[in-house]
Amino acid sequence: MARVASNPLCLHRFRPYLQASQSSPSLLKSTFHYQTKPRKFPTVSCQTSPESSETSTPAEKEVLEPGTVSDDTKREDTGASQDPGLPEFPNKDVNKRIAVVSLLAAAGLFLSSRLDFGVSLTDLSAAALPYEEALSNGKPTVVEFYADWCEVCRELAPDVYKVEQQYKDRVNFVLLNVDNTKWEQELDEFGVEGIPHFAFLDRKGNEEGNVVGRLPGKYLLENVEALARGEASIPHARVVGQYSSAEKRKVRSVVDPRSHG
């Protein structure tokens, strides 16, 4: 027994084994090598300015081990993998603006087509040729009997204006106001009972036909085209639509004998 205890070699043999088992770096590396969850280590970044280093708080940043993927990167990859061709829902404000613009455009188109930017019976009467001059210049003539209170007359004013602008060099356009007592004889001569009443006269002043009331614009256009070409007859000689009765006319005396209104 005294021999074993006094032998220092026996005790020295076990020390390297114990030290290797406690501090072997290869075993620690192998243990951490199989961890799949990424490890994050906080790092501290300090400002270089000495003045602000006392009051500022160090900002912490996350540092990942090599070979690992962060959760933010995974979320970005998931969002990028979605189908980019899917349509996005439009903003409500954009829809409202589009609706307002569409309504304004539709209203403007309707008003421009019906009113022709403000053409009225007064404008037509001012541009019309005096009746006596129209019968003496050797051109065919369109005579319209109208009244300022006639709704159908006001509605057809833009259509009459367009035709007049197209054929004013070859056809006379005359407007006679049924409220003017000056035209009593012409009212009886042309048999005016409703307005608007359009009488179509040839180059010699003879009536070829008439159109009364609200009718499609082609009736007036085709008749004026026939007059301009000097045809013996017009395609629409006796046509009656919705009209205002001439019996409602408000008779007034002639102020200016030269007036054709």
Molecular structure report:
- Residues 48-58 have a biased composition (Low complexity).
- GO terms for molecular function: oxidoreductase activity, acting on a sulfur group of donors, disulfide as acceptor.
- Keywords: Chloroplast, Disulfide bond, Electron transport, Plastid, Redox-active center, Transit peptide, Transport.
- It comes from Salix purpurea (Purple osier willow).
- Belongs to the thioredoxin family.
- With 261 residues, the protein is of the alpha/beta class.
- Helix content is 43%, strand content 16%.
- It has eleven helices and nine strands.
- It has helices at residues 2-5, 8-13, 15-23, 25-33, 71-80, 92-115, 121-127, 131-136, 151-167, 184-190, 217-229; strands at 40-45, 59-64, 141-146, 172-177, 194-195, 197-201, 207-212, 238-240, 244-245.
- The strands form three sheets. A five-stranded mixed sheet has the order 4-3-6-7-8.
- The longest helix has 24 residues, at 92-115.
- The termini are far apart.
- Mean pLDDT is 74; it is low at 1-14, 16-35, 52-64, 113-117 and 255-259.
